[in-house]
Amino acid sequence: RGAEDSGPYDEIRAAFRINPDANMEGDEYVREENLFLDNEGNRVFIALKNGKAFILTENKAVETPYSDIDYTSICYDNKGTLCIIAKDNGKLFEPGRGCFVVRGDKKMSEFDFAYPPLYFDRQNSIYYMIADSTGEYTYNYDIAKDNDRLGRSNGEMYNSGISEIRFGERGELIYVASKTEKNEYEESEYMPLSYLIDKNGRHFLGYSIRPIEWSKNGEALFAAQEKLNVKNADLFLWKNGNKRKVNTSRYDDTYG
């Protein structure tokens, strides 16, 4: 069967799943295995036309009540229900509150911004990063579960994002929250400071933390700076609720 024209749309984007462990950004890094397929094995696309968002497959176009859909958010939950991040009053990253998660036809709470990927625990609850705008190009980040902001940070504000979202051996939520502090020795005025958040509270990891390598039993290996105004990076192991320095020599920086 030959190729068929889907009809004119203002914009069409291929749906794909973000790999949170890839540490890469941009469509140019999308591999074939990341492209999203529906339950029948068809490629899925998100299209926009006249202020409405459509979900396209090879043989059908479904108009949604939303004005935009994040084409990197589309996925199935543990029970096979389609989930997306959407907005119904403009484009996703335009100013104004209105981003939300949709499971099936159920719209969840609105936030200024909501970000993929979506994570599902054993009970099929959805977890995702959200953000509130605090000024021009400034945001406070948190994590949401279904409709609710978790607010597990004891009143702390995190302006550099939420990352490393995962679940422990018993299904408990674990993630890294980051904020900035004034930095005196580099050209950059501020340096990111990261904490591990788990069921036991908040744990200091370090400044300018590098990507974390996780073991199957929940141990974490990472490089970071221990002090704000001392320019050297060390390698640390997080194990059984404690952080331990691994290297014995001093390094200006650590990569990998």
Give average pLDDT, whole number.
Answer: 87
Low-pLDDT segments, ≥5 res: none
Total helical segments: 0
Quantity of strands, as a count = 21
Brief account:
The protein is mainly beta. 0% of the residues lie in helices and 44% in strands.
Give a structural overview.
- The chain is an all-beta fold.
- Strands 5, 6, 7, 8 and 9 form a five-stranded antiparallel β-sheet that branches. A four-stranded antiparallel β-sheet has the order 1-2-3-4, with no helix packed on it.
- The chain is globular, with a radius of gyration of 20 Å.
Main attributes of the structure:
single chain; 256 residues; mainly beta; five-stranded antiparallel β-sheet; four-stranded antiparallel β-sheet; 44% strand; globular
Could you give the topology of this structure?
Blueprint (H helix, E strand, L loop, with lengths): L10 E4 L30 E5 L2 E5 L4 E3 L4 E2 L5 E2 L5 E6 L11 E5 L2 E2 L5 E8 L5 E10 L2 E8 L2 E2 L11 E7 L5 E10 L7 E9 L2 E7 L5 E2 L5 E5 L9 E6 L2 E4 L11
Antiparallel strand pairs: 1-2, 2-3, 3-4, 5-7, 6-7, 7-8, 8-9, 10-11, 11-12, 12-13, 14-15, 15-16, 16-17, 18-19, 19-20, 20-21
